[in-house]
Amino acid sequence: MKEIRLDKYLGEMGEGTRSQIKEMAKKGRIWVDGIPEKRTERKIDPERNQVTVDGRQVSYVDFEYYMLNKPQGVVSATEDKRYETVISLITERKRDDLFPVGRLDIDTEGLLLITNDGALAHKLLSPKKHVDKVYYARIEGTLPSDAKERIGEGLILSDGTPTLPALLEVLETGEVTEVYLTIREGKFHQVKRMFETLGCHVVYLKRISMGSLLLDEALKPGEYRTLREEEIEELKKGK
Ligand code: URA
Q: I need a surface site. Which of 17, 72, 216, 220 has the fewest CB within 10 A?
């Protein structure tokens, strides 16, 4: 890992702004290798130097990866004036620059990757990469008999936007229809709008997977866990 300025190191670990950190250093609250350090511009080797704030060790991590089962009522944003955000649910986070990879609507549940790895996020979100996303949906009533074919050919949404061919699997049909829908893009409210085009209303939506990453069924809505090393590698490989 490369060397990094002390103020950047502490800032990224959520210890405060650059000026707050300078102030803390002036007061002798920041120590490096057992000695108070006032020069916040000095370089730190995260693998060799030991940094403490008020005697508490602050270790450095450059990337964090969390899988969240997003609950309803929480927004997929880093900050919001009215609602709780998905980031605030990651209570054990170390870095202050985490963001959700893509958005789920406030009333959608399920898989959300939360990281600060911009390159991976770009890979997963880029429209050119066509990463598969699988959703489980419950729909009021029944679908038209040709729903699978129409979705398979690609639909034209009510505002004229075309969708790429997608895959529909009907699990259950009756008063409520249960389906899996696999799409390869992520337009605004895409799943709900696709079913609206077919004259149907989605009453419950949950994302099950994104590329190779599957929602861990042990996670209840609102719960999260760190990604395993092999899950990160598979996502990076784009499998
Ligand atoms: N499609 C939707 O309509 N909503 C989501 O949250 C995700 C996909």
A: 220
SS3 162: strand
What are 164's two structure tokens? 């790429």
Spatial neighbors of 145 by CB under 8 A, at least 6 apart, are: none
Q: Could you report the per-residue pLDDT of 44-99, keeping only the tens digit for each?
A: 999 999 999 999 999 999 999 999 999 999 999 999 999 999 999 999 999 989 99
- Direct distance between the N- and C-terminal alpha carbons of the chain, in angstroms, rounded to an integer: 27
Determine whether 132 is an active site residue. no
Amino acid at 220: K
Domains of the chain and any CATH numbers: 4-57 (3.10.290.10), 65-126+215-237 (3.30.70.580), 133-210 (3.30.70.1560)
